[in-house]
Specification:
Blueprint (H helix, E strand, L loop, with lengths): L6 H9 L25 E2 L2 E3 L6 H8 L3 E9 L7 E3 L9 H13 L3 E7 L1 H6 L3 H4 L3 H15 L3 E5 L2 H5 L1 H20 L5 E7 L7 H12 L6 E5 L11 H19 L5 H5 L2 E5 L2 E2 L7 E2 L1 H14 L3 E4 L27 H6 L12 E7 L2 E5 L3 E12 L4 E7 L5 E6 L2 E3 L3 E8 L6 E11 L2 E12 L16 E2 L4 E4 L2 E5 L3 E2 L12 E6 L1
Parallel strand pairs: 1-12, 2-3, 3-5, 5-6, 6-7, 7-8, 8-9, 9-12, 14-21
Antiparallel strand pairs: 3-4, 10-11, 13-15, 15-19, 16-18, 16-20, 17-19, 20-21, 22-25, 23-24, 24-26
InterPro entries: CBM5/12, CBM_sf_5/12, GH, GH18_Chitinase, Glyco_hydro18_cat
Enzyme class: hydrolase
GO cellular component, one term: extracellular region
């Protein structure tokens, strides 16, 4: 994926030399049979460098399966993979082990993914970095046995697609891993995540699959990234997904002439990028696009539906460019997850659901005045249900109320924000939460107050050029913010609820 890992991990990689010695040779390790993935699975990517808990985000979004990004070596030439290339996140219980077990205990699973854009451009994708096929295979095996997973993903793009020696080593190592799994009665699937054109794989991606066939390596899923086309063309992202996948299907038919049409579609995976992708607004994947792709994926019977990435599934930066922490479009948190989640076989998603929005979504008022907005609810799936509305985030000197406080999905309520002269001037995020039988949804209203006489923030003002570490506090736009991890240049209030800055409230 076209995303960068954290600066902290890059610094670690630059100063740490990792020895390749000590990696087990195939044959060691547990061979217990884990539970296979469903025939059809929704598994969005989780960005491992954010410091967040994958189990917590999976639960919050209603997602049972995750693709964990990414595993790579800390330095070029190493044969030892770490999460995000960070030596502090090894392949062990210390490296997401507890989270993965929690997800599995809830009936889901994870798909560890090797590579990614950063690794593929820095030579730290393990098959590009390590020249020993046996050590590469042993690293794959360690991930499988440590986390008891049944699928590994290989995210291969940009420079790694041109590294023919790395491609050959990777496929040979996968074949060794598959032979080990077969000998031990262990279920194991391999997916390749590859960039695509709107008509199918480019020559480099197709050549990678030809090499797999030549090496006797079984590829179970080819997962195409249906975004970042960078072709300066006009795009309907849902239509382009369908033509790209049809092109892949036809390419797979040439590589695997013995497979039926149904089997070929069963090898296809699709990964979208919700909202604005890295190219810009001309390549925007909307909620309507998501609904079209979902219906198409069900009809074709593809294997995997995914998107990049779970932390982006929120409307925290509408009108903004592509970012790790938000989609850049107007949406509720987890809207894309809720559309795609029923794709997983036996997901048991609720039949009824609803949405919450506020109109207008922002307002400015002089201290002592009142601002209002209409809170609208709508049925997004099934039948209408009762929705209880609450409001939070109002600073001292502002009274927030909703009338009525309970509606039937499809109904409206009036949000009233009454200010006093004692409120501090600034901009505040007011959150309206609607809770129903199927879960909860939120809508944000941005209130700007002028002319207030209230107290001022005590934390130092945020500075774009300052490096902040986890726990440090700053003031910005009338709120106090705490950094969750290392950051610089990321403005508080723009990174969304899953971003680096935690909003400690108005001050």
């Amino acid at each position: 994926m076209r995303r960068s890992r954290s600066v902290r991990a890059l610094v670690t990689a630059a100063v740490t030399t990792v020895a390749a010695a000590g990696m087990a040779v195939l044959g060691a390790g547990s061979a217990e049979a884990a539970t296979p993935l469903p025939d059809h699975v929704f598994a969005p990517y989780f960005e491992s460098w954010t410091g967040e808990s994958p189990a917590d985000l999976a639960a919050a979004s209603g997602t049972k399966h995750l693709t964990m990004a990414f595993l790579q070596t800390a330095t070029r030439g190493s044969c030892t993979p770490y999460w995000n290339g960070d030596t502090g996140l090894p392949i062990s219980a210390a490296g997401f082990g507890d989270d993965i077990r929690t997800i599995q205990a809830r009936g889901g699973d994870v798909i560890p993914s090797f590579g990614g854009y950063t690794a593929d451009t820095t030579g730290t994708e393990i098959a590009d970095s390590c020249t020993d096929v046996d050590q590469i295979a042993a690293a794959y095996q360690k991930v499988v046995t440590t986390y008891d997973v049944t699928r590994l993903d290989m995210d291969i793009e940009v420079d790694a697609l041109d590294n023919t020696a790395g491609i050959d080593r990777r496929n040979k190592a996968i074949k060794k891993l598959q032979d080990w799994a077969a000998a031990n009665g262990r279920t194991l699937e391999i997916s390749y995540t590859l960039p695509t054109t709107t008509r199918g794989l480019a020559d480099s991606g197709y050549a990678l699959l030809r090499n797999a066939v030549a090496n006797g390596t079984r590829v179970d899923v080819v997962n195409i990234m249906t975004f970042d086309y960078y072709d300066n063309a006009s795009h309907d992202m849902a239509d382009d997904t369908e033509t790209a996948a049809q092109g892949l299907h036809d390419q797979l038919a040439r590589l695997y002439p013995g497979k039926t049409d149904s089997q070929l579609w069963g090898m296809v995976g699709v990964t979208e990028m919700p909202g604005v992708d890295d190219f810009g607004p001309a390549e925007t994947f909307t909620l309507d696009n998501a609904r079209q792709v979902y219906a198409w994926a069900v009809d074709k019977g593809i294997d995997t539906l995914s998107f990049w990435a779970l932390q982006r599934d929120n409307g925290g930066c509408p009108g903004g460019p592509a970012a790790d922490h938000c989609s850049g479009i107007e949406q509720n948190t987890w809207d894309f997850s809720r559309i795609f989640a029923p794709f997983t076989s036996g997901s048991g998603q609720p039949a009824d659901d609803f949405s919450v929005t506020a109109a207008p979504a922002a307002g400015t008022v002089a201290a002592g005045g009142t601002a209002t907005a209409t809170v609208r609810t709508a049925v997004t799936r099934g039948e209408a249900q009762e929705v209880k509305l609450t409001v939070g985030g109002a600073p001292a000197g502002v009274t927030a109320s909703l009338s009525p406080a309970t509606v039937t999905a499809g109904g409206t309520s009036t949000l009233t924000l009454a200010t006093t002269g004692a409120v501090a001037s600034g901009t505040y995020r007011i959150t309206v939460t609607g809770a129903g039988a199927s879960g909860a949804h939120t809508a944000d209203y941005t209130l700007t107050v002028t002319g207030g006489t209230g107290g001022r923030c005590t934390a130092g003002p945020w500075s774009a050029g300052t490096v902040y570490t986890g726990g440090q506090q700053v003031s910005h736009k009338g709120h106090t913010w705490k950094a969750k991890w290392w950051t610089t240049g990321e403005e508080p209030g723009t990174t969304g609820q899953w971003g680096v800055w935690q909003d400690l409230g108005a001050c």
